[in-house]
Amino acid sequence: MSPAVRRRLRSPLSLALVGIVVLVLLAGIVGHVGDDAPAASAAPPASNHRLATPAVGDPPATDTPPNVPADDPADSADPPSYVEPAAPAIPRKPQLPGGGYRIFGDHRFLVAYYGTAQTGAMGVLGATDPDTMQRRLMRAARPFREPGEHIQPVYELIVTVADRSPGPEHDFSHDIPRDLVRQYVRAAHRNGALLLLDIQTGRASFPVVAKRWTWALRKPWVGLALDPEWRMGRHQVPATVIGHVRAAEVNRTSLWLSRLVRRDGLPEKLFVLHQFRLSMLPHIGKIVDRPGLAMVQHADGFGTKRQKLATYHAITRPHQFRQGFKLFYHWDVRRFTPRQVRRIQPAVSFVSYQ
């Protein structure tokens, strides 16, 4: 290098220019090296599980998606202790017509038509077909409704009818055909009604006869009514005397029905006791309040308003039962109006028309 060049390089300006050039060259070298390195956001290396074409003798390939390891023998081992096993599914409990599980829940007021199938001789229920009856029932029921209430229609169908002759079973009663009962089971379900099976057993006991209707009572909307007027003693004949039933027999029947409700996971069932004389339910205070049953004491009997109220006040036990009241289209004298029924005390929860 010539002396002139060395003198220029020693000058301060020359030294500064040389330093800048050196820095630029170093920055280019570093940037190039960074381009060759893997980016910080790049995917991690693949796992140790291999996804390859199986060799001869290997098991066939599965539908395992890409980058998902195939089943490992370790996967079949017991789950870790911190993993809670799934609980079994809880079966859904069926509800009553209109929803809910309690007969008188959601401010329900019950109104029924009473009778047997295909005849109006025993009550208005069977005077027409079930769907026509439903329309008539709702017209009769609407005036009973008070603010905030829901009217619940009820079909009280006599399914076991007391007879004056012994019959093949010598129990002075007979069952109506099942096909007729099925018509009302289906109609009640279709129309959002409760079906109440009324049994008049003659000389047969209430539990024995009730169990014959188990197939229908398994339906969530089907309940049971006992009519002691037609429960005869060993030597009695229906329609010649007023019958009666002891508390023990009522309790056996209600216990069986309560167990059916619990065993089949059913909503509450309507359980009605008809009465118009104290002698029909002797020792009534011993009748047990069963879980799963809405127990109603239903005041029957026709006559003048004064006579009916006298009967009602003589028999009613509001601390033990809900109260029912029957109205007769043909035999009551100046029949109670819906508004008059709603003013009766103790309060009525269930009205039926015969």
Please give a handful of descriptors for the protein shown.
354 residues; alpha/beta; eight-stranded parallel beta barrel; 9 helices; 9 strands; globular; disordered N terminus
Task: Please outline what is shown here.
It is built from nine helices and nine strands. The protein has about 350 residues and is α/β, with parallel strands linked by helices.
Mind explaining what this structure looks like?
This protein has 354 residues and is an alpha/beta fold. Helix content is 29%, strand content 17%. It has an 8-stranded parallel beta barrel with strand order 1-2-4-5-6-7-8-9, surrounded by 4 helices. Strand 8 (322-327), helix 9 (338-342) and strand 9 (350-353) form a beta-alpha-beta unit.
Q: Give the helix level as a range of percent.
A: 25-40%
Count the DSSP helices. Answer: 9
Largest sheet: 8 strands, parallel, barrel
Taking all residues together, what is the mean pLDDT?
84
Low-confidence stretches: 1-6, 21-76
Radius of gyration in whole Å, from Cα?
42 Å
Strand order of the largest sheet: 1-2-4-5-6-7-8-9
Beta-strand proportion:
15-25%
Strand segment count: 9
Shape: globular
Structural class: alpha/beta
Topology, please?
Layout: H1 3-10, H2 12-36, E1 108-115, H3 130-141, E2 150-162, E3 173-175, H4 178-191, E4 194-199, H5 206-211, H6 214-217, E5 222-226, H7 247-264, E6 269-275, E7 293-299, H8 305-315, E8 322-327, H9 338-342, E9 350-353
Parallel strand pairs: 1-2, 1-9, 2-4, 4-5, 5-6, 6-7, 7-8, 8-9
Antiparallel strand pairs: 2-3
